[in-house]
Amino acid sequence: MLPYGRQSIDASDIAAVTDALNSDWLTTGPEVERFETAVAARAGVDHAVSVTSGTAALHVAYAAAGIEPGDEVITTPLTFVATAATAALLGAKIVFADVDPATGNLDPSAVAAAVTERTRVVAGVDYAGVPVDAPALRGITSRHDLLLLEDAAHSIGSTLDGAPVGSLADLTTYSFFPTKNLTTTEGGAVVTADAELAARAVSFKNHGLVRDRAMQRYPDEGPWHQEVHAFGLNYRLPDVLCALGTSQLERLDQFVARRAEIKAAYDEALGDLEGVDIPVAPQGAAPAWHLYPLRVPAERRRSIFDSLREQGIGVQVNYIPAYWHPVFEDLGYQRGMCPVAEEYYRREISLPMFPALTDSDVERVIEATRVAVAG
């Protein structure tokens, strides 16, 4: 079975991990700082906070934004549930806004209509690697004094009008899961240009510990003393995984280029299929294509999916609308709230997309897809 996503590991990655294992540090050591510095540079901002997963990055980012019970967070339903769940865990009410039918990204006009006096954060998702319409969303958040969070789990390496994803929003979160554009096995990061938001993120991911004597309530307790002023969690990414991430970052441009080649090959070969829509990006966007979200006739999506699996093509569907999950259904959310996102979901199939796909693999996917769609 050809998987829909897979990590790309080489000898340099293995050597980096081995060196970290042979060092004096397995966690909270020099590799963490090295990785965070490299991630911040790639994002075009001053601050990067490494964490244990993309979900942890979202949780940390919402905590840094000061989300509390009663606050509202506007986000897209066309995403993995963590984008909404991590805000809900902090007590926020999730307000789902519909998506752009072409890109699957959050529709700025739907966001504008959803803003209330309780809104605190707008959280867009770079679906498939396509950057959100940050200028339009920034216009909304600036008018209402809100924070813009960009869930860039799919899009490290993407740019918009030449600016890297990571520099477009107040807070940006990355995921480094194995199927993503680079991996630390599990892992993620929060990046920001705002020093105060970064400090809050660092505190929350490290139990809320205060070690700076100037900030402690009881600084004379002893040299061992540390205090917790606000609750946090242990979301620290260890040195071993950070070493892998730094090594992977050195090849990110190669990964992005190969993903673009695969996307172009799929486009050329599948664009003429009746009833099928290939993924698009708006002018000025240069996506690091994490997914290839092909849209097929909704009434035939299941049979096409099954045919591809039977032919050994490990396709996936991304994603069930977040509010369809029973946890949101039990809170009163109902199907039909975001019809564009729901229609996108009903038609979507993710074809294999990862740098190690060979040209023959790509041809195999194309042939199988044409067979499945022809039915």
Automatic annotation (TrEMBL):
Cofactor(s) annotated in UniProt: pyridoxal 5'-phosphate
Keywords: Aminotransferase, Pyridoxal phosphate, Transferase
Swiss-Prot/TrEMBL GO biological process terms: polysaccharide biosynthetic process
Record: active site: K180 (proton acceptor)
Pfam families: DegT_DnrJ_EryC1
Domain of life where this protein originates: Bacteria
Gene Ontology molecular function, alphabetical: pyridoxal phosphate binding; transaminase activity
UniProt modified residues of type N6-(pyridoxal phosphate)lysine: K180
Family, as annotated: Belongs to the DegT/DnrJ/EryC1 family.
Protein name from the UniProt record: Aminotransferase DegT
Source organism of this protein record: Brachybacterium muris UCD-AY4
